[in-house]
Design goal:
There is one protein chain. The protein has twelve helices and ten strands. By secondary structure, the protein is of the alpha/beta class. The strands form two sheets. It has an eight-stranded parallel beta barrel with strand order 1-2-3-4-5-8-9-10, surrounded by ten helices. A two-stranded antiparallel sheet has the order 6-7. β8 (177-180), α8 (201-210) and β9 (216-218) form a beta-alpha-beta unit. The longest helix has 24 residues, at 288-311. The relative contact order is 0.16.
C-alpha cells in the first residue's frame, strides 16, 4: 500500500468512537517499534515528522525508513497497513510546501500564535497548495503551553480554543482537521505536582456541536508513564515532577470527536528509560545494537498499549 491521507482513517474513527495514534519519528528504531506494534494490533497509523526531526535525520532518510516500514508490513504481516506521513507543527508555508513536494500525505500548519485573521490567511494558503496536490491539512486554534522540539509556549501565553471561532475558521480556510487546546500540553512537565489534570471536555463538546462530524486533534497528549520516569531517575536521571495527561481522559476524548491524538514524549521516555537501565546494568557494553534493541522493544510495548487501551484503534486496519 502506498502512503495514504487521513480522510478515510478519520471518517471511520469518528463513526467508531476511537482515535488514530499520531507518533513522532526520529530514527530507525522508533519507526520500527511503532510500526511493529501497529502491525500486531492491526491499527491504522500516523507517523509524524517535526521540523526538528527533519533537521536531525534529513527528510530523505525519514521517508525511506517509512517506505521500508510499509514494505515490511506487506511482507511480514500479509496485509496493507494504512500509514499517513504527517508534518507536525509546520510553522510556515515554505516548510509545508517542502513536505508536500517531498511525499508527505498530510501537513499541519500551526499559525495558532498569530492573530485570528493572519492564522486564517496562512492556513488557507497552505490548504490551497496541499489540496491541489492531494494532501490534507491540519490547522490549529488555541495555543498549548509546553516545550517540545520547535514548540515553546509559556503557560502565560497559552490559551483555550474559543468554540465560537471554529466554524468561521474551518469554513474560511478549508482545513481538513482542527487541533484545539483543551488543557493538554507539550513535553513531560505538563502540570504542577499535586494538581489534578483535567481536560476541558465542555470545550470539546461545544466544538463538536459547532462542527458536527469534523475530525478534532489533540496535541501534547503524552501521559508520561511514571514507570518510565522512575526508571530514568533510578538509573542516573533527574526528572522530578514529570506529569502527563491521564490516559482515561484521553480515552474519553477518543470516544467523542477527537480522531487524532499526538504522542511524542512517551516515546522518548520509553527509549531513554530502557537505555539508561541497560547502561547502568551493563557498564562494559558499547555496541549500539545491544542497547537500542531493548529500547525499540520498549517503544513497541508502549505503543501497543496506547493503541489498545487508550486510542481503541486496534483491529481497525
Amino acid at each position: 500500500m502506498a502512503i495514504v491521507t487521513t480522510k478515510e482513517m478519520f471518517q471511520k474513527a469518528y463513526d467508531g468512537g476511537y482515535a488514530i495514534g499520531a507518533f513522532n519519528v526520529n530514527n530507525m528504531e522508533i519507526v520500527q517499534g511503532i510500526t511493529e506494534a501497529a502491525i500486531e494490533q492491526r491499527a491504522p497509523l500516523i507517523l509524524q515528522v517535526s521540523k526538528g526531526a527533519r533537521a536531525y535525520a534529513k527528510h530523505v532518510y525519514l521517508m525511506k525508513l517509512i517506505e521500508a516500514a510499509i514494505a515490511d508490513a506487506e511482507q511480514t504481516a500479509g496485509f496493507d497497513l494504512p500509514i499517513c506521513v504527517h508534518l507536525d507543527h509546520g510553522d510556515s508555508f515554505e516548510l509545508c510546501k517542502s513536505c508536500i513536494d517531498g511525499g508527505f500525505s498530510s501537513v499541519m500548519i500551526d499559525a495558532s500564535s498569530k492573530p485570528f485573521e493572519e492564522n486564517i490567511a496562512i492556513t488557507k494558503q497552505v490548504v490551497e497548495y496541499a489540496h491541489d496536490h492531494g494532501v490534507v491539512v491540519e490547522a490549529e486554534l488555541g495555543t498549548l503551553a509546553g516545550v517540545e522540539d520547535e514548540v515553546q509556549v509559556s503557560a502565560e501565553d497559552s490559551s483555550y480554543t474559543r468554540p465560537e471561532d471554529v466554524q468561521e475558521f474551518v469554513q474560511r480556510t478549508g482545513c481538513d482537521s482542527l487541533a484545539i487546546a483543551i488543557g493538554t500540553s507539550h513535553g513531560a512537565y505538563k502540570f504542577k505536582p499535586g494538581t489534578k489534570p483535567q481536560l476541558r471536555f465542555d470545550i470539546l463538546e461545544e466544538v463538536s456541536k459547532r462542527l458536527p462530524g469534523f475530525p478534532i486533534v489533540l496535541h501534547g497528549s503524552s501521559s508520561v508513564p511514571q514507570e518510565f520516569v522512575e526508571m530514568i531517575n533510578a538509573n542516573g536521571g533527574n526528572m522530578p515532577g514529570a506529569i502527563g495527561v491521564p490516559e482515561e481522559q484521553l480515552r474519553k476524548a477518543a470516544s467523542m470527536a477527537v480522531c487524532k491524538i499526538n504522542i511524542d514524549s512517551d516515546l522518548r521516555l520509553a527509549m531513554t528509560a530502557s537505555i539508561r537501565k541497560f547502561f547502568n546494568e551493563h557498564p562494559d557494553k558499547f555496541d549500539p545494537r545491544e542497547y537500542l534493541k531493548p529500547a525499540r522493544a520498549a517503544i513497541k510495548d508502549m505503543v501497543a498499549h496506547k493503541l489498545v487501551d487508550v486510542l481503541g484503534c486496534n483491529g481497525k486496519a
